[in-house]
Design brief:
Layout: E1 6-15, H1 23-39, E2 51-61, E3 65-74, E4 83-87, E5 93-98, E6 100-105, E7 108-113, E8 125-133, E9 145-146, E10 149-150, E11 185-186, E12 200-203, E13 212-216, E14 226-231, E15 239-243, H2 246-250, E16 254-262, E17 271-278, E18 284-291, E19 294-299, E20 304-306, H3 311-315, E21 326-333, E22 338-343, E23 346-347, E24 378-384, E25 390-400
Length: about 400
């Protein structure tokens, strides 16, 4: 059970080495520097050095464990593969990871790229996550190094301002997205190629088969771009796009809205098209998909379903319409342990979970006493456990602290 949650972030930087200038260039640079100094009288101090890499290490912590989202940005020459190393200052022990191959030897940790995210051009970023245990203090590692180059803190530059002149600071507002009106929204219009990049990365949990994830520039709910998933039949055809930044930032309660379009009716067997890693359940997934031709939630750790897969329970759910864009919404309250799901603005009765067991709906799910989820990421895609192929498109994904609506 989550007793406390702490989110903190630390950025690690490493300076780029100096470059040699020609005599003429040096003279020009010196003249420019003198001119600048004369124009900025009273301002002392220097700008931060250029950096070769930055690492954002963001922690979500509870009493005996934590997850860390690690974002690596390469500011130096392009690389075709990367290794990030660090030393835990306490007794932290990594138990699982995603989007990287993470190993630990004592306090020393090594994270290798997962293959598909190994190439990092100048200015390019990639991210991975991990879950770990700890006791006592969970201090942030201070010796992260990318491909052997230490990413140490650059001291903050504190300018001295003359008494007669002070800089003007203009407050900034959080960024918003025109589709959702909130920052945590993605309509995929920023995706340029055919492979998801940036905040969305291809992910093939458990095993990879013929399923594929791509950016589609021909089909969209709004704009011209969406996320396309070609879902294959069978266990080893898991194919998703993983986002590790939107869900932790949303907090609790979590409200999500996504538009989805697909080509084949939900099958009789179990399938899932959305999954969230639950840090309170050993990193297992909360899965939204279908069974018996209707929408259902499934808890991976014990295979509990919502609704129960009785004829009466299934009748309280609803199919996912084929060949059209559908607005799918859900909320997960991490504190109360409740969830609701809406299809095109109408709540699906069989997907309503509260703390009072209701026969044919949530009594099976609530057999686990005091269930309190802690989702830390979002996967959109396809996995099948008993047959069933489908092609799906996802667009206008929004996450917020209150319901967004359709």
């Amino acid at each position: 059970m989550v007793k406390d949650e702490i989110r903190r972030r630390r950025r690690f930087l490493v300076p780029v080495g100096p470059r040699r200038l020609s005599g003429a260039a040096a003279a020009t640079l010196a003249g420019t520097a003198l001119l600048a100094a004369s124009l900025i009288a009273g301002w002392q101090g220097s700008a931060p050095a250029a950096v070769a890499c930055t690492v954002d290490y963001t922690v979500n912590q509870w009493a005996t464990g934590f997850t860390a989202q690690v974002q690596v940005t390469n500011h130096a020459a392009p690389v075709t593969g990367w290794t990030l190393t660090w030393t835990f200052p306490g007794d932290q022990r990594v138990t699982s990871a995603w989007n990287a191959q993470v190993t630990q030897n004592g306090p020393a940790v090594t994270a290798h790229d997962a293959g598909y995210n190994g190439a990092l051009g100048t200015g390019a970023s990639t991210g991975f996550g991990l879950q770990a245990t700890y006791s006592g203090q969970n201090a942030t590692p201070a010796d992260l190094a990318l491909n052997g180059t230490a990413c140490g803190d650059v001291p903050a530059q504190t300018p001295t301002v003359s008494p007669t002149a002070s800089p003007t600071v203009t407050p900034t507002s959080p960024p918003t997205n025109t589709i959702c009106g909130v920052a945590l929204c993605d309509s995929f219009e920023g995706q340029q190629g055919t492979t998801p990049t940036g905040a969305w990365q291809p992910s093939f949990p458990d095993c990879q088969g013929t399923g594929a994830v791509a950016v589609d520039h021909t089909v969209a709910h709004t704009g011209s771009t969406s996320l396309r998933v070609d879902g294959g039949s069978g266990y080893c055809n898991h194919a998703f796009a993983l986002n590790t930044t939107m869900v932790p930032a949303a907090g609790s309660p979590l409200y999500m809205r996504v538009y989805v379009r697909h080509t084949a009716a939900l099958p009789d067997g179990h399938v899932a098209f959305a999954a969230l890693t639950d840090a309170a359940d050993g990193g297992r997934h909360l899965r939204l998909g279908g069974q018996n031709r209707a929408l259902q939630w499934n808890r991976e750790s014990d295979d509990a379903t919502l609704p129960e897969q009785s004829p009466a329970g299934v009748a309280l759910s609803a199919p996912l319409p084929v060949g059209q864009w559908s607005c799918l919404e859900f909320t997960i309250d991490q504190t109360r342990g409740t969830t609701s799901t809406w299809l095109d603005g109408t709540e699906v009765q069989g997907l309503h979970l509260d703390q009072t067991p209701t026969h044919d709906i949530d009594s099976q799910w609530l057999s686990r006493v005091n269930w309190r989820p802690h989702p830390i990421d979002l996967r959109l895609g396809w996995e099948s456990y008993a047959g069933g192929t489908d092609t799906l498109w996802f667009d206008d994904v929004g996450i917020y602290s209150s319901r967004l609506g359709c």
